[in-house]
Amino acid sequence: MPNMLKNKPLTVFLKFSHFFILAFSLAILTACAEGNKKSEKTDKNEDKKESPKAEKKNSNLFEIEGKVFSIPSPIQTAFLLKDVGTDYQSDLLNPANKSGSYTTTYDKALALGIYGADLGYATIFDQTQDAISYMAVSKKMAGDLGITGVFDDKMIKRFEENLGNQDSLLVLVSDGFKTTDRYLKNNKQNDLSVLILAGGWIETLHFATSLAQSSQNEMIKNRIGEQKITIKNLVNLLAPYTENAKVAEVANQLNELKDIYAEIEFNYTFKEPTTNPETKRTIINSESNVVMSAEQLKNISAKISSIREGIIN
Amino acid sequence: MKRYIYLFSLTLFLASAQFEVKAQCDTIATICSENFTKEYLSDGQEYRALLIQEQTAEFHLTLYGGSVYRFGACSGLDSGNLIFRLYDEERNEIFSNKEHDIAPYWDFEVKSTLDVIVEANLNQDKLSSGCAVLLVGFKP
User: Fold this and answer.
1) CA nearest to B133, candidates B96, B64, B84
2) Least CB-CB distance to A280: which of B8, B26, B103?
3) What is the pTM of this model?
4) What residue spans of A149-244 are helical by DSSP H?
5) Strand pairing of B57-63 and A67-69?
6) What is the pLDDT of residue A66?
7) For residue B57, what are the β-bridge partners?
8) How far is the C-alpha of A120 from the C-alpha of A278, rounded, in Å?
């Protein structure tokens, strides 16, 4: 008993030491993980104030044994819009001068996705002035998000030097978004990464629905219908981050759009692929088609327009 | 005291390991991007998974009809470390690079739009753990 009493201060000291070392270790671990994220702390705090539930999911960079969902590049649909002969319509784009109205980190991430799609659209249609404006506004958004080494002065300079060379410009834009994706994932900001993707997808579908109505082009309508399969991946992509109020809001809106898409028929038939080992190429011969009524297209158009308005205004 | 030094060292080790893994993935993604010639545009994303032994990473993507895609699948610093298989949504196998010397990239010409699933595993003969990177490019 005397020994126990004698050892008590030591035991308390050891407990505190233990606590101190663990706390210190955790602080170092956190500091290492946080890396370059200081610049976006203020905005994050603002976002958290918006909703007590808006807590960023610190999901691991790697999804072990998990599923990773993806959506196609907005540039692919912009190419289709050009290939089928539609004219460039600058009024479809989100005005660059609106960039100052996006105040929270999450709004900025969505806006970066939207402006990125606008940048791709303007570049594909060789609209140099608009492309430069949207490159500048993408730089602003990326900078506000604390993303370094992309959409910076160096990239803008390269963009300006390559004006007139569409292939090089598109490589710059695509690589810019790939680097953004890498940066955000490396800094455990997957929630922002998925919002950028969602913004790009929403903007592209807005282009397609607007132009489908004015042009009545079947290939554009088909592309809109095909989003029935893409929207599932997009909703799955957002799902792990719905603890965040903004992500949840976007996911809810997209789920409502997914319900509209549920009424559309997407028929798929598997056909044996053909592989040529010499050219390292496989032809995927499977067939698919979309059956969508004018009413369904109208409903999709109205919904995507409402989702987009809610984001940009 | 030894225990605390041990705890502290372990924490430092974990922090540096996390940093090391990210750096490793970045390096692999950069090496993998060399499989993409100028005619392919990136889809703007990097798909990564940390794989240990026989773990499988699963990637879900939409491929548009009338397009040509290139998939680059890499792990480690050499080619032939990552086995990948492509399935449609009904799990019909479309392609496996295991039948083609574990090629680090392959092109896919798509007739009609479809959703695909890419499964990736480490080549156990060469790697027991590592970062798996899948890159997707398309021909404009």
Assistant:
1) B84
2) B103
3) 0.82
4) 153-161, 166-186, 190-215, 218-238
5) parallel
6) 63
7) B120
8) 34
Task: Provide CB contacts within 8 A for A252, sequence distance 6+.
Answer: none
How many angstroms away from the CA of B51 is the closest CA of chain A?
7
The answer to whether B112 contacts A18, with C-beta atoms less than 8 Å apart, is no
> How crowded is the C-beta side of B9, counted as CA atoms within 13 Å?
6
Q: What Å distances lie between residue B137 and A145, A171, A178, B72, CA to CA? A: 26, 11, 11, 8
Going by C-beta distance under 8 Å and a sequence separation of 6 or more, which residues neighbour residue B86?
Answer: A282, B71, B93, B94, B95, B96, B108, B116, B117, B118
In 10 A of CB A139, how many CB atoms? 21
Percentage above 70 pLDDT, chain A: 79
Q: Provide the ipTM.
A: 0.89
Which residues in chain B are closer than 8 Å to A182, comparing Cβ atoms?
A: 26, 29, 46
Q: What is the DSSP string of B75-125?
A: -SSSSS-EEEEEEETT--EEEEGGGGTT-SEEEEEESS-EEEEEEEEE-TT
Give the three-state DSSP class for A187.
Answer: coil
Show the tokens assigned to A219: 């290939």
Taking CB atoms and an 8 Å cut-off, how many pairs form between chains A and B? 186
Asked whether residue A6 carries a pLDDT value surpassing 70, the answer given is: no
A-chain residues near B60 (CB < 8 A): 67-70, 233, 236
> What is residue B38's predicted lDDT score, i.e. its pLDDT?
87
Q: Given an 8 Å threshold on Cβ–Cβ distance, is A70 in contact with B62?
A: yes
Instruction: Find out whether B60 and A68 touch, Cβ atoms under 8 Å.
Output: yes
pLDDT tens digits, one per residue of A214-264: 999 999 999 999 999 999 999 999 999 999 999 999 999 999 999 999 999
Q: Supply angle C-alpha A19, A22, A23, rounded to 5.
A: 80
Note whether A177 contacts B44, CB cutoff 8 Å.
yes
Distance, in Å, from the CA atom of A186 to the CA atom of A33, rounded to the nearest integer, reads: 9
| A residues 191-250 closer than 8 Å to B (CB) | 197, 200, 223, 226, 229-230, 232-233, 236
**Percent of chain B predicted with pLDDT > 70:** 86
Among A17, A61, A186, select the one facing B4 at the smallest CB separation: A17
The residue whose two tokens read 């790009």 is: A200
